[in-house]
Amino acid sequence: MRRFAAPAGIDPLNKPVVVPAETLTEPVVVSDVAPAAARAAGPAYVVLAGISFSHFLNDTMQSLIASVYPILKDTYALDFAQIGMITLAFQFTASLLQPVVGHYTDKKAQPYSLAIGMASTFFGLLLLSAAHQYLVILVAAALVGLGSAVFHPESARIARLASGGRYGFAQSVFQLGGSFGTSMGPVLAALIVVPFGQGSIAWFSSIAFLAIVVLWRIGRWYAPQIKAKKTAAVQAHPDAPSSRRVAVALLVLVALLFSKQLYVSSLSSYYIFYLIDRFGVSTQAAQIYLFVFLAANAVGAFLGGPLGDRFGRKIVIWISILGALPFTLALPYAGLHASAVLSVIIGLIISSTTSSIIVFAQELVPHRFGMISGVFFGVAFGIGGLGAAVLGKLADHTSIEFVYQVCAYLPAIGLLAVFLPKLPRHAR
């Protein structure tokens, strides 16, 4: 084993780590950690703004799928299980391919893959606008999921490259665009799709085209950042967690992401039906209430990263998961206006953990940023898809209210955060 000083782009904690040589045979490595000069210069705000805006456009289009569920349900007489299968088709494609894309781009970065992947979303939207059979709807949803699978791992890497060393902040800016885009889907559905019908979804393909243009420009900035390097094994720092503790920590992070994502999926997929069934509100009014919850998610997602940079990611994960528990327990028993208030509080608290979980995982496995980002984004999408299908089946056999009574206990899984190791803080 040869000994090297830790090179830039290997360890976000500025400490050397063990990287098995057999797993990294002459890969093409992107310098994921900003070198000292870049950290001194600070974040590349224009690039961060561009990748966040692209995330906004990407997730706006994706959120349209869930937002038009009431229209598809009424038009094609679908049950809740079939609605859940649409979510599964979209999110299973995204979750299955994201780790694969991340693993591949760790070795051979593709600066223009983001723009190419967005073309899949473009065609998926056009197909969904014209689909008149359930199978075609599933295919259209899967195409949108494919675009997401290509987008997220590399865009998360670009956000890190542009961070200037402020990794939590950069991840939060990136997440803010996606969360805000997700919140816009119900509003656009209420204003455009509900009045003008399923065919109006085709209008949103223009958003996909705009995203392709922006991502192509970002690809031109990204291409010079790619450097071919040979990565050999380096000596582990004595304070670094053992490989066993790293494996345990990654499993805990997956479990925490499971609790957060399944609860959010229960609201994003079925909150509209819950409000309609329990309080008798109109579809458009229910979509506005969903927008309020998703907007709170966007704000929480932005706040979580800087708080993790300042106070440590572990404490943010503790507070954001367990802190939501009292409010999720109260939601199934609240009135309409109280439910709206509780949904805002829940969204603010529970979504603040996303950036901290992802950056924490990247710091545990610093030589596999793309794959780790892909795995955690993929797990998030997969949990959302499988959760939506399972919860839909449960709602068919019981009720939507019962589903929310069960899901209220999910944040209790946050107790597992006690098993996370304490990582040394990197230079700020």
From TrEMBL:
Species the sequence originates in: Bradyrhizobium diazoefficiens (strain JCM 10833 / BCRC 13528 / IAM 13628 / NBRC 14792 / USDA 110)
Extent of the signal sequence: none
Transferase in keyword set: no
Keyword annotations of the record: Membrane, Transmembrane, Transmembrane helix
Stated name of the protein: Fosmidomycin resistance protein
Gene label: fsr
PROSITE patterns per the UniProt record, alphabetical: MFS
Major facilitator superfamily (MFS) profile domain location: 47-426
Transmembrane feature ranges: 109-128, 134-152, 173-194, 200-219, 246-264, 284-303, 315-334, 340-362, 369-390, 402-420
Gene Ontology molecular functions: transmembrane transporter activity
Entries under PANTHER family matching the protein: FOSMIDOMYCIN RESISTANCE PROTEIN
One cellular component term from this protein's GO annotations in UniProt: plasma membrane
Keyword Membrane (UniProt): yes
